Description:
Elements: H1 18-25, H2 29-36, H3 44-57, H4 63-70, E1 75-80, H5 86-101, E2 105-110, H6 115-125, E3 131-134, E4 151-154, E5 164-168, H7 170-183, E6 189-192, H8 199-215, E7 222-224, H9 230-241, E8 249-252, H10 255-267, E9 277-279, E10 296-298, H11 301-318, E11 327-329, E12 332-334, H12 342-346
Parallel strand pairs: 1-2, 1-3, 3-4, 4-5, 5-11, 6-7, 6-8, 8-9
Antiparallel strand pairs: 10-12
Helix pairs in contact: 1-2, 1-3, 2-3, 5-11, 7-8, 9-10
Domain HTH lacI-type: 16-70
Organism: Lysobacter niastensis
Keywords: DNA-binding, Repressor, Transcription, Transcription regulation
Amino acid sequence: MRPAxxxxxxxxxxNVTIKDVARVAQVSVATVSRALNGHGNVAEEVRxxxxxxxxxxxxxxxxxxxxxxxxxxxxxxxxLPDLHGEFFSELMRxxxxxxxxxxxxxxxxxxxxxxxxxGAALRAMRGRxxxxxxxxPYMEAxxxxxxxxxxxxxxxxxxxxxxxxxxxxxxxxxxxxVEHLVMCGHRRIAFIAGPAGNFDAHERLRGYREALKRFxxxxxxxxxxxxxxxxxxxxxxxxxxxxxQRPDAVFAANDMMALGCLxxxxxxxxxxxxxxALAGFDDIPMARYVRPSxxxxxxxxxxxxxxxxxMLIARLAEGVVVAPQPQALTPELIVxxxxxxxxxxxx
Length: 347
């Protein structure tokens, strides 16, 4: 027969109780319960002590009993437009980290950009999760607003004061990148846009156009369609190569399209940044490892996911009904090799 596992000190893991955790952590049973259930009214040092004691004793709360007593599933639902690509991988890494900090599980669903599948995914979450993290990229997404579960929208158009939302200042990030490219001496700046009807894409295009008017009023807007993936960036790059006059610089609405464009340029023998400067948006991990390294607008994608998850956990713990004002992360301009100034590139 396989021997029963034991915690440090020789105690049978199966017999470890919440009282044992409280004794080792030198706190009350109520404090242990609040810490393990993700309540916000526990000091960080105390929370860390409780988790350390639980790990030492290998204590695992009985999920079924805890769900019955609290009427909670201890699970967060995550509904995303896709799971493919570095952006979503980083986003999920942050969400998972925050959930694990609070002893919570995740139920993840993707609707592949289909609004009807999005609705089906949301309906399937009911009764199975305590709250929802939803990324809905559409300019208008009334189906998302479901009052049956606490919800936090990520990078979505907020529809009402009672909706908790966390996003990115896409407009400000794009505005800063265009200013940088103009200051580098570029005037013919093409923009590879994201999908029509996508909120992030709309805001980045708006930032590009308004910055161009501000910093290069004589320059014409030059927008090429894209779809936030490498293939559409490659197609856009080929279209720009076929233009009667090539741009000085290309600003892609995300890094994946910028990498596709870079491949098209490299295959045609067009050098970046000597012939054409190039920039993206997001700062996915790959952006710093390509050659030339990609100038971009950094969104701390993992932190975006973690902060959204913590917002939802706080709403669940505190029973918040009315959401705070929507919050936005401020992106950071990251200047690398691909956007060198014309003076430097021509030297």
